[in-house]
Amino acid sequence: MVIRVRFAPSPTGLLHIGNARAALINWLFARHHTLKGQEATFLYRLDDTDLERNDPIYAKAIEEDLTWLGLSHDQFAKQSDRFDRYDQAVEKLKASGRLYPCYETPEELDFKRKRQLARHEPPIYDRAGLKLTTEERQAFEAEGRTPHWRFKLLPDPIHWDDLIRGPNDFHGSHLSDPVLIRADGAYLYTLTSVVDDIEFGITHIIRGEDHVTNTAVQIQLFAALGGDIAHLHFGHFTLLLDVNGASLSKRLGSLSLATLRESGLEPMAINSLIARLGTSLPIEPHLTLDELAENFTLSIFSRTAPRFDPAELGTLNHKLLQIMPYDQVERRLQEIAPSITEMVWMVIRGNLTTLDEAAQWEPICAGHITPVIEDRDYLGHALACLPSEPWDTMTWGAWTSKLKEATGRKGKELFMPLRQAITGMDHGPEMKELLPLIGHTKVIDRLKA
Q: Is residue 445 very low, low, confident or very high in pLDDT (cuts 50, 70, 90)?
């Protein structure tokens, strides 16, 4: 069987950490099977039927974010190109008696729901629309009302073995007939998504657990439209919580991919975190998506909702840069700090939290700085003890040992004035690695400053 998964965002806002996680999980699922020699396809589908809220700017931003994360797609589709397919599906449902018009206003529906809740009844639509006579429908339309259309669920058991949650059981009589077409004629996600999943041959629908009830409804809709339910698989992962255990959904605006990218985070730091949140695998930095895909299966996901801490991204970004090879950053370094060579990169990368910070080490290693001089007499001794060239990683130890004998200093009093004078900073890579990169001439100039 060819595996086909999809990621289907709406261009009504920026891609945030929650739906980026959904995209990544689907992509890694497909990629894992590809690496194992099985044919798998990742469909990127733009769910853009909400013409009032859609914005081409968001559509472009979502594609840019997916590209930045490295989530390339095998196939692309836009729902706005497929209205004729939805029209045909609607006519099929009407002809089979599974789609019926309803004329209640939003206020009337809200009143019904409140009465049901007050009586401790489930807020299920009472199917009043099914009981209307032709004359009653005509009367409503004469008032100026236009109908919304609901899908008639069958009073049958609904079962599927979820790839993450295990067995799931619903009953059609316990669910409310879903609206497929609004009163303004707009098609809703429930209809368009099922039509597309059938026609694009989607085999695995992997999404958040907030869609579990939708899945129960859509299984009947799949069957009504001729979908192959026997070969359709569902997996529902738990949603992210914030560090305090509250829903993350209200904070997602500040966690857009655009904002995270602007903060200097590496895409693989984000991928490394969100691919492992909610799973049994350890969270650790990975340099490539294929590394993440190698052991990726839906069986690793837990039923416990994971907590997302933005601070963990910063830590993971630092760890990622520590292991990142030069060839993976060379092009970007040429834009940030063109004189940073591979030798310099290997020394400084362990001290970076973002790649942009590499720029501050360029003048230290290859340019001019303002040394921090607090004890000129001591630096005079240091200059007198400075070894001649050639220098290597043993030079720092030999120099400080000689200086310790000459001055009696040790520990921070011995090392810190040298670091501050030579680098202008009180922290950084080990001086034994940094000293040969700066070189004899620059060190002398800075000690004399």
A: very high
| % of the chain with per-residue pLDDT over 90 | 92
Strand partners, 207: 236
**Using CA atoms, how far apart are residues 54 and 365, in angstroms rounded to an integer?**
50
What tokens does 73 get?
């797609």
What is the chain's mean pLDDT, rounded?
95
Return the domain boundaries, the chain: 327-366, 376-448
Give the pLDDT confidence score for residue 318 in this predicted structure.
97
DSSP 320-365: HHHH--GGGTHHHHHHH-TT--HHHHHHHGGG-SSGGGGGGHHHHH
Are 265 and 285 within 8 A, CB to CB?
no
The packing angle between helices 395-407 and 412-423, to 10°, is: 120
**Look-up of token digits 């965002």:** 9
376-448: CATH, from 3.40.630.30, 1.10.10.10, 3.40.50.20, 1.10.10.350: 1.10.10.350
How confident is the model at residue 158, as a pLDDT?
97
Tell me the backbone φ, ψ of residue 422, rounded to 5 degrees.
Answer: -85, -35
- Which residues 6+ apart lie within 8 Å of 21 measured at CB? 240, 274, 275, 277
Pairing, β 179-181 against β 148-151? antiparallel
Describe the crossing of helices 310-323 and 267-274 by its angle, rounded to 10 degrees: 120
Q: Which residues contact 330 (CB under 8 A, 6 or more apart)?
A: 342
Asked if 353 contacts 314 with a C-beta cutoff of 8 angstroms, the reply is: yes
- What is the model's pTM? 0.92
Q: Which residues have CB under 8 Å from 173's CB, separation 6+?
A: 153, 155
Q: Would you place residue 90 in the very low, low, confident or very high pLDDT band (cuts 50, 70, 90)?
A: very high
Residue with the two structure tokens 């939003």: 106
In terms of DSSP bridges, do strands 99-102 and 75-78 run parallel, antiparallel, or are they unpaired?
unpaired
Selection from 31, 50, 49 nearest residue 40 by Cα: 31
For 145, counting Cβ atoms within 10 Å of its Cβ (0-12 exposed, 13-18 middle, 19+ buried), the class is middle
State the pLDDT at residue 242. Answer: 87
